[in-house]
Every structure is written in C-alpha cells, then in structure tokens.
Design a protein that fits this description.
2 copies of one chain form a homodimer. With about 220 residues, chain A is mostly helical. Helices cover about 75% and strands about 0% of the residues of chain A. The termini of chain A are far apart. The interface between A and B is large, with 43 and 43 residues. The structure holds a DNA duplex (30 and 30 nucleotides). Chains A, B: GO terms for molecular function: DNA-binding transcription factor activity; transcription cis-regulatory region binding. Chains A, B: It comes from Bradyrhizobium uaiense. Chains A, B: Keywords: DNA-binding.
DNA sequence: TGAAGAAGTGAACAACTATTCAGACTGAAT
DNA sequence: ATTCAGTCTGAATAGTTGTTCACTTCTTCA
C-alpha cells in the first residue's frame, strides 16, 4: 500500500511550518529571543510542543532559520534602496539609512537577531547574517572608493565597524529611549548616518547633503 | 561571649573574596562568560561551591562585580592616556586607541563583559559599564568640539556609536582573525581609530596624524 | 581547655525547559 | 468500510547548574 501525500496535505504541512516560524518571529518581535520558547511558540502556532519537532530538529534550528529569514529580508531592503540611488556615494548613504531605519522599526527583533543572549548556539547563523549585511556594505564602500569618492581603506573592517556603530547607537542598551517620537527618530537616523559616512571618509559638507537625500525616501519607512 | 574578628581573619576573608573574583576573571578571560560557573570558579579559588555563596549572594552578583571591576580598570586606563595627551583632539585619539588596544589584548574577557550571552541578568552592570566608558568618550568629544576642532554634534550618541564600532570591528564575530600578528593588530587599531576620528568630524589628513601620534605610546600596551 | 559562634564543605535539591515517545488521530488507498 | 502510514499530542523525561543546608572544621575568648 503506497501512501502518497496529497497536494492538500503538502500545502497544510508547508502552512504549518511557516506558522511555526511566524509564531517564533512574533514572539521575538514582542519579547526578544528570550520569549522564543518551544511551548509558547507552539501555542501561538496552534500546535502541540511535540509538533514543533516534526518541523524543526531543535530549537537552535528554529531560531537559526528565523535569523536567516529576517536577515534575508533586511538584505534585500538594503539592496533595493542602494540600487535605486543615483551614484555610489548615494547608494552607500541609502544602505546605511536603510539599516538604521530597519533596526529602529523592529528594535526588539533586531536586538534578538543580533546580540541577545540565547540559550542555544546560534552563532553560525548570526555570523552569516552579519557577514551578509556587512559584505553588502563593504561592496558599497568599495564602489565609492573605486569611484574616487572615498580614500582607499580596509573596506571589510570599515563595514563591520559601521554596522557596530549603527547597532550600538540605535538598539544597544545605551540607545536613546525617546525614539518613539518620529522626529527624534529621524534625527537619530540622520546623526548616525552622518557619522557613518564621515567615518569612511566622506567630507562633512558632502556627507550632510547625502544624509538629507537618503533620508527623504526612507521617511516613509520610518512610519511603517 | 563576644566573638570578634581578628585582624588576621579579616585579611583572610578579604583575600578569599578577591581570590574568588580573580578566579572568575581568569575563567572569563580564558573561556568567556560561559566558563564562569560556580563550581569551576570555586575549584580555581580553592574553596567549595557553597563558600562562594558566603561572599556573593548569587552568581549574578559575582559577575556584576567582575564587570564593574574590569570596567573600572579600563576607564582609568582611558583617562590616564587621554589626560597625558597634549590637546583635546589628541586626548580623544588617545582614548579611542586605548579602548582598542584594551579590548584586543583581552578579547574573550572584553566580549564577555560587553555582550556575551549570560544565563543570569547582568544588564544593570553592563549598562553601567557602557555608560561610564561612553560617557568618558563623550566628554572627550565634547572637549574637542568646544575647542573648535570638531563640528557640533550629539556627543552622547556619537560616543555610543564609536564604542559600538570599536567593539564590533575588533572583538565582534566578524573581527579579523589574524590579530595574533602584532603588525596586523597595530594596523587594525590604527584603522579603527582613524575611522572613529573621522566619524566625529576630524579631517582625514589631520586624523591620520593623530592616529600615528596616539599609536606610538600605546604600542607598548599591545605587547602586554 | 572547652564552649560557642563563625566559616567552610559538598552532596542533595530545585527550577527551568528542551526534547522524547507511546498512544491518539487523520486521511489516503483499497 | 477498513487498514495503515503519516501526523499530532502533551505528559513524562532528562540534563544542566545555581543554590541550599545539615554537618564539619576552625577561631575566639573565658
């Protein structure tokens, strides 16, 4: 007797899998990684705890996949913003602004993905996430250098430093607490973007122009 | 009958307390915060597990005190270096370099103090540690601004961003792995210092000069 | 020296959650 | 309708460590 999964079943299985991931993401967005516990996630996804293990071999896998997913979304947003910019320097500014806006709009999630203590080992996917985003940034810096807009430099190290600066300034424990106010938020985004651009060697005056330019299209996102 | 602690006993108690803290520090330096577990620390300190609890009410307290101690040491090193500099910009450069050299010379410890996941809540002391160091940096930036060497800016946010940049670039998961080589190490320190100075608005050319100046006295520390 | 209080010991305990698994349920094939 | 592989369930299990506490050892002082 052959048992074959019917199309309907296949769809249901896929839906369930993504429901579990989704539940994990919601939990993380609401309460950080600490809130991503098997039992609560299972409840949110309307399944039993044991069922989670039919879709993910372990909590570490579940969280890793969550990190990968969020990171992929962010990376594509960065690319989109940068590619839409008129030149390499603008592209870099757009990339930085996008990162800033993104982490701010989902602070708990961003913190969880990046750095929040988790009881299982997710260093590999965190590393990959950082590597992807830092790599993208490095490419943009490199393009600006090749265009003669920036001095030659260790672009990988610079990209990593910029990421660290953005994260620490915007979602780290010392991040300003008044970022609910959209105006303060925009100021913070502009400030860190300016800082980042200058860090890689953009002249102050030119950097200020780029910041304004980059913030304009990103403003919509801030509201979202 | 009154029992009064004799001087000798007081001394022994104090010695034991610091032996426990020391053991915790060694463990953290060797294996990160994950290695700071009560039983192993007790063994290192030549006491029983229960004894640790006669000196520290909980693991959280122990680690908090460890963080405070390390942070205090670092802060005083930063102050010393900055105060010895000839002017506000040099002082800022010296402060940044000192932080860089410090975190690099004790990478595991630095990572543990700053950001490594711990199973107990140490957010308060981590926050204090960051606040102190970021505050010191902010003061130095502010001094340079007041001296007219830097454009006006949100110094607190800038200081936080710089800290994040230094940490991520030097001890984060994407930090270069070849930093055993003293030359590479010095290059990394110079690169991030340059980046940091430019970020707050020091002109490229002047920044390069300050970096060289600041790295010279710090070189000795790199060896240590 | 002996009594009493302080300090130290380490095996047992507790709490927390990820993970398992024996049995219940679903739905595909005959 | 019946069978059975596949799927789901959720209570029980397991592993990990911080913490406790009854007991031993040490120190002070009459």
């Amino acid at each position: 007797m052959v048992y074959r999964r019917t199309h309907q079943v296949v769809k249901r299985l896929a839906a369930r899998r993504s429901a579990i991931l989704s539940a994990a993401r919601d939990a993380a967005a609401a309460g950080g990684m600490a809130a991503v516990q098997i039992a609560p996630v299972a409840v949110r996804a309307n399944v039993a705890a044991g069922t989670v293990y039919r879709y993910f071999p372990s909590k570490a896998e579940l969280i890793s996949e969550l990190i990968t997913e969020v990171s992929r979304d962010e990376l594509s947003a960065i690319r989109r913003a940068a590619d839409a910019a008129p030149g390499p320097s603008s592209a870099l500014a757009a990339a930085v602004t996008t990162i800033a806006v993104h982490v701010l709009s989902q602070r708990k999630l961003a913190w969880g993905i990046l750095a929040e203590p988790v009881d299982v080992d997710v260093t590999a996917s965190r590393l990959a996430s950082r590597r992807d985003i830092s790599g993208e940034l490095a490419m943009r810096i490199d393009a600006a250098v090749r265009a003669g807009h920036l001095p030659a430099q260790d672009t990988a190290l610079a990209a990593t430093a910029l990421l660290g600066a953005l994260h620490e300034a915007l979602v780290g424990p010392l991040a300003p607490s008044n970022l609910e106010d959209p105006i303060k938020l925009r100021d913070a985004v502009q400030t860190v973007t300016l800082l980042a651009l200058r860090a890689v060697g953009v002249m102050d005056a030119r950097a200020r122009g780029l910041v304004v330019q980059a913030t304009t299209p990103a403003k919509a996102l801030v509201g979202a």
